[in-house]
Structures are given as C-alpha cells and as structure tokens.
Amino acid sequence: MDLAAQIENWANEALQGETEYFVVEILRSKTGKQITVILDGDQGIPIQKCGEVSRFISRKVDEEVPDEVGAFTVEVSSPGVDRPLKMIRQFAKHLGRSLRFMDEEGKEQEGVFKALDGETLNLEMTIKEKGKKKQVVERTYNLSSITDPKVVVSFKR
C-alpha cells in the first residue's frame, strides 16, 4: 500500500465512531514530500478535530513508517472556501447558498442551491435573455455533469 493510501486509512481510523466527520481527499505534492489530508463534516469540522487527526497520524507515522521512506510532511486541513465540493455529503450544509460551477458544455453557471435529490442538484437561477427582463427559473443538474462546484462567498448583509 502506498503512503498516501496508508495515511488515508489512518485518518479514517482517527475519525472512527465520529460519523459526522469524513475524509474528502488526500493530496500529494508533485515532489511527494507533502501529503495533505482534507477533512470535512456534515456541519463543518472544527480546527481542534483536524489537530487531533494530525496528531494521530503523526504517531502512526512514527510507529509504522520505515526511515527508508524519507522525509515528508503531513498536513490536515478543512477544505476552505476556495476548494470545490467533492462529495455529496458536502452539499447539504450549503443549502440556501449560491453555488458556482461549470456545466457539461463548459459554461459557468451560478444559482442558489435549493435541494439535492439523490445526485440531482436543484438551483434557483436568475436568467437574462437578450432583449428580455431578468427572470428567476428553477434548473436541475446531475452532479456527474458538472465540474468544480464551489460555494460563492458573499459579504452582503
């Protein structure tokens, strides 16, 4: 088993019994010297939980990874606002917020997230066609047909 997969297993082990938290992805730098564990939760993930998982993985690395593997670092983090949503579980906490993504034609789309039915994303979108007034429409997208879905950060009050 490669190191990134082993670290993912340890992250899952550290979260065992805490079903509200989950591993989103494991990223490895081009040099292979840094492995980043991205964690999330159904209601977000506190920094303290990331720290606990990081310490658990560090202990496992010290105990089980041979010195021949060489030096590397492991970083444990929440996704952050700039990261796309990767898992269905990540969508629920963003109900009512604006999402931006690329559709299957490569066009950028944005709308207010209203519901997720299985793998179908329901959005309320404001459309302006040439020569017509803006209108609000409901649109659905299959999650498999969109790429790079991100929550739009708004500082409006």
Task: Explain this structure.
- Helix content is about 20%, strand content about 35%.
- It has two domains: about 5-75, 2-Layer Sandwich (GMP Synthetase, Chain A, domain 3), CATH 3.30.300.20; about 90-150, SH3 type barrels (Roll), CATH 2.30.30.
- The chain contains three helices and eight strands; from the N terminus they run αββαβαβββββ.
- The chain has helices at about 5-15, 45-65, 90, and strands spanning about 20-30, 35-40, 75, 100, 110-115, 120-125, 135-140, 145-150.
- The model has no long low-confidence stretch (mean pLDDT about 95).
- The chain is of the alpha+beta class.
Which helices and strands appear, and what pairs or packs with what?
Elements: H1 3-14, E1 21-28, E2 34-41, H2 47-64, E3 73-77, H3 88-91, E4 98-102, E5 108-117, E6 120-127, E7 135-142, E8 147-151
Parallel strand pairs: 2-3
Antiparallel strand pairs: 1-2, 4-5, 4-8, 5-6, 6-7
Keywords, separated by commas or semicolons:
single chain, 157 residues, alpha+beta, GMP Synthetase, Chain A, domain 3, SH3 type barrels, five-stranded antiparallel beta sheet, three-stranded mixed beta sheet, 3 helices, 22% helix, elongated
Structural class: alpha+beta
The assigned CATH architecture of the largest domain is: 2-Layer Sandwich
Q: Strand fraction band?
A: 35-45%
End-to-end C-alpha gap: 49 Å
Provide the number of structural domains: 2
Summarize the structure.
The chain is built from three helices and eight strands; from the N terminus they run αββαβαβββββ. The protein has helices at 3-14, 47-64, 88-91, and strands spanning 21-28, 34-41, 73-77, 98-102, 108-117, 120-127, 135-142, 147-151.
